[in-house]
Amino acid sequence: MGNRPQIAIGTSERIANVGKLYPGRRASLSLEVVVVGCGLGGVAAAYCLAQAGHKVTVLDAALAIGEIGAGIQVSPNLTRLLIRWGLRKRLEEVAVKPEGLDFRRWCTGETVAWTMWGNTLEEEYGAPYYHIHVKLELYSRADFHRMLYELVEPQCTIRTNCRVVSMDTSKPTLTLESGEVVHADLVIGADGVKSTLRQYVVGGPDQARPTGDAAYRAIIPTGKLLQDPDLRPLVEKSEMVGWMGPRRHIMAYNIRAKREYNVVMVHPDDDDGEESWTAKGSTDKMRAEFVGWEPRVQKLLALIPSTLNWKLMDRDPIETWIHKDGTLVLLGDSCHPMLPYRAQGSAMAVEDAAVLGNLFSRLAHRSQILPLLHAYQSIRYNRATATQMSSRLNQHIFHLPDGPQQEKRDREMRAAMEDALRVARGERSTLTSAGNANQWADKEKNSIQFGYDADEEAEIWWRNHGHTLRGPRALL
After folding, report:
1. Backbone angles phi, psi at 135, to 5 degrees
2. Residue 171: how many CB atoms within 10 A of its CB?
3. What residues have CB less than 8 Å from 426, skipping those under 6 apart?
4. Among 40, 58, 28, CA closest to 353
5. Is a pLDDT exceeding 90 seen at residue 161?
6. How far is it, in rounded angstroms, from Cα 133 to Cα 254?
């Protein structure tokens, strides 16, 4: 039988739940909800549904709650939710606000694209862009996953060593590897790209497919970079730096209040192994993948003592995220896995959770469960699918072989950079950025991606359609 993790946290160090969501609205009908998966999306779903008034249990197969250390990008569409949940102070303490985005040629290091970030994104979209470390160990506090865990842990039951092996959607019940049967009113499948529960929605087992790419990941203490005059600017300028080359690219940035430097090196996948965040990689092979890249890349890779190699898997969009009985719904990578090329995987999963919690804060009777699940899907489906497509587009853009297409890409990116530099000087923008190869320079795409407010979308849906669900006890 799975155990609830016991983690020593001093009272003064807990994150205060500074306000009630929705605002203070709680469902008049409280459900027994089981969330399968304790990743970022699962923890966020547990928090939002608990805030909505439901009794939540989280099941995770891991022996202990943990995430392999890595840096992730937290864009304004995600940070606005975290700030709403009371996490601004913690984010400011441990995250890094990048001043800009700098794309470079693989062989020369020449900058071909630059986009101004810093305070500009918060001014434009009402929330900042951060780089943050994701690592949850029993006594590790300065990271993203830990923040969310501390929010949800007092409000629900979290059980580790609980691997789900099957589900009876008619009851509904979950059978664990131990033989235990867990009952629920509603199950949330937040169990990732290798989801066990997805098959019950799509009608049978289906496998994620390899993308042809894998990613080496490593974290370097910034003190090592500061000792080298060629690498020192990577820390001091605090920009996200990307090197683009044939079939490969590197993304690198500061995390943990600039104490560490996160490096992600995407390369052709020549391994038949299984997708895993924890697979150890060879530093010799890692360096061999980037032979001939500019001198700063060689120096950076020489500082890496060990690495993980993450096989990148993908799935096509599925027709529905909801089981027809209304007892199971998918969330995050279990239904719309995001490749890392647009840095939106965590954001999409947490947005899902926010919409689901907001809608289910209005639940008044069981007849509303399935319609509210369909509302969740209608709000989220097109956005998640478009973000999947945008991520796949960057895979193509970043990895162009040297030649005419690459030269066209670089011309577009340089034009956007020149326009961004004009704006930085206080001059007027003269470029139409729509469709630019640098998707972060495309103002229309940025507005759609970063200006999104998941709670507001749920509120809009209710204002427009809630009257169709209002029963005698429905919450207005």
Report:
1. -160, 120
2. 12
3. none
4. 40
5. yes
6. 9
CA atoms of 257 and 92, how far apart (whole Å): 9
Q: How confident is the model at residue 13 (pLDDT cuts 50, 70, 90)?
A: very low
The C-alpha atoms of residue 13 and residue 140 are separated, in whole angstroms, by 12
Shortest CA distance to 96 belongs to which of 131, 128, 120?
A: 131
pLDDT of residue 445: 94
Distance CA 475, CA 466 (A): 10
**Sign (positive or negative) of CA dihedral 235, 124, 452, 394:** negative
- Cα-Cα-Cα-Cα dihedral sign, residues 75, 395, 39, 316: positive
Phi and psi (nearest 5°) for 315? -140, 150
Written as one letter, the residue type at 325 is D
Please return the burial class of 7, using the count of CB atoms within 10 Å of its CB with bins 0-12, 13-18 and 19+.
middle
Q: Please name the amino acid found at residue 77.
A: N
* Rounded (5°) CA angle 410-412-417: 90
Q: Is the pLDDT of residue 291 over 50?
A: yes
Cα gap 209→205, rounded to integer Å: 13
Residue 74 backbone dihedrals phi, psi, to 5 degrees? -120, 100
Q: State how far the Cα of 332 lies from the Cα of 107, in Å rounded to an integer.
A: 36
Which residues, in sequence order, are CB contacts of 107 under 8 Å at separation 6+? 245, 292, 293, 294
Q: Could you tell me the two tokens for 25?
A: 């609205």
The whole-number pLDDT of residue 275 equals 63
Q: Kindly report which listed range (201-215, 267-281, 284-298, 446-460) carries the lowest average pLDDT score.
A: 267-281
Per-residue pLDDT, averaged over 367-376, amounts to 97
| 324 CB-near residues (< 8 Å, 6+ apart) | none
Task: Count other Cβ atoms within 10 Å, centred on residue 157.
Answer: 14
Q: What is the DSSP string of 372-423?
A: HHHHHHHHHHHHHHHHHHHHHHHHHHHTPPTTHHHHHHHHHHHHHHHHHHHH
pLDDT band for position 101 (50/70/90)?
very high
Strand bridging mode 248-255 / 260-268: antiparallel
User: Which amino acid, one-letter code, is at 322?
Assistant: I
